[in-house]
């Protein structure tokens, strides 16, 4: 869905000086909770700062403060080569808090996709070295280091892998994990983990949520007392739902989800 960009023009911008955009950068606003509040702040010349856009929980709508062809003032030396957004959020948020803002994450994913298309950039997560070098793709403010002002947003719990998967149009499973998670967990648990057979599309740095999911898969595998139907369903589900769905209830019983408490906190129950 194409985002609606609500205009709040800021006077705080300048020419890119001939530089080409190679970075899509995500920040957290650390104060403003709506795109309107952020727009009011950027509207003041005395603030001396700006961003191209701002994103809150409003479905399909973002704030636009500086047009993408100009340089916004929000990441020091990186400004000439970056198009940037401010999430109405805090770098200190936990994974649980981020999960309470699915629309903000959805808007962020759509914004990334639109900017990447506009500038011909890959939907690739950059390392700090790549972001500060000559890499082309997506990063957080923290990845810019001192060159970008020395900030730490969007924080260690920001789900950038999830957001990038949405930007690419990769459908996650009903529990909130992308297909790459299941490929990786199967490779990790059932093979000798040879680098040559590592599944493609798996991030170099495995997200903490994936390790949590792997631990829960192993815990479930050690449980006993399940019915054949429940075990068949769990095997099918944890195997990536490949092949015919087992002959089990259309609505999964609550007692089965008691064996998979982790699913209740990471996604929607399948029906």
SS strand fraction? 5-15%
Q: State the helical fraction.
A: 25-40%
Q: For the record, give the distance between the C-alpha atoms at the N and C termini, rounded to a whole number.
A: 26 Å
CATH topology label of the largest domain: Lysozyme-like
User: What is the residue-mean pLDDT, rounded to a whole number?
Assistant: 87
In total, how many domains does the architecture comprise? 2
What is the alpha-carbon Rg in Å?
21 Å
H/E element order:
EEEHEEEEHHHEHHHHHH
Q: How would you sum up the global shape?
A: elongated
CATH homologous superfamily title of the largest domain: Peptidoglycan recognition protein-like
Question: Major sheet: order of its strands?
Answer: 1-5-4-7-3-8
Main β sheet profile = 6 strands, mixed
- Stretches where pLDDT is under 50 for at least 5 consecutive residues are 262-271
- Return the CATH architecture of the largest domain: 3-Layer(aba) Sandwich
Question: What's the total helix number?
Answer: 10
Q: Please provide the count of β strands.
A: 8
Structural class by sheet pairing and helices = alpha/beta
CATH class of the largest domain: Alpha Beta
């Amino acid at each position: 869905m194409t985002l609606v960009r609500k205009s709040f023009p800021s006077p705080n911008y300048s020419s890119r000086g001939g530089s080409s955009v190679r970075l899509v950068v995500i920040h957290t606003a650390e104060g403003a909770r709506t795109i309107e509040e952020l727009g009011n702040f950027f509207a003041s010349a005395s603030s001396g700062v700006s961003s191209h856009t701002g994103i809150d929980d409003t479905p399909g709508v973002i704030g636009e403060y500086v047009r993408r062809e100009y340089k916004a003032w929000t990441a020091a030396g990186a400004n000439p080569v970056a198009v940037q957004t401010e999430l109405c959020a805090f770098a200190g948020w936990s994974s649980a808090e981020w999960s309470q803002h699915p629309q903000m994450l959805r808007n962020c994913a759509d914004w990334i996709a639109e900017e990447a298309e506009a500038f011909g950039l890959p939907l690739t997560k950059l390392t700090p070295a790549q972001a500060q070098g000559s890499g082309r793709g997506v990063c957080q403010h923290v990845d810019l280091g001192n060159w970008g002002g020395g900030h730490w947003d969007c924080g260690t719990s920001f789900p950038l892998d999830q957001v990038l998967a949405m930007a690419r149009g990769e459908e996650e499973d009903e529990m909130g994990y992308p297909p790459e998670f299941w490929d990786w967990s199967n490779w990790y648990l059932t093979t000798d983990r040879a680098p040559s057979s590592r599944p493609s599309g798996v991030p170099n740095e495995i997200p903490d949520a994936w390790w949590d999911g792997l631990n829960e898969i192993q815990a479930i595998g050690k449980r006993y007392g399940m019915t054949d139907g429940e075990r068949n369903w769990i095997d099918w589900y944890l195997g990536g739902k490949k092949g015919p769905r087992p002959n089990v209830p259309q609505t999964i019983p609550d007692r089965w989800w008691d064996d998979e408490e982790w699913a209740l906190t990471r996604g929607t129950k399948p029906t």
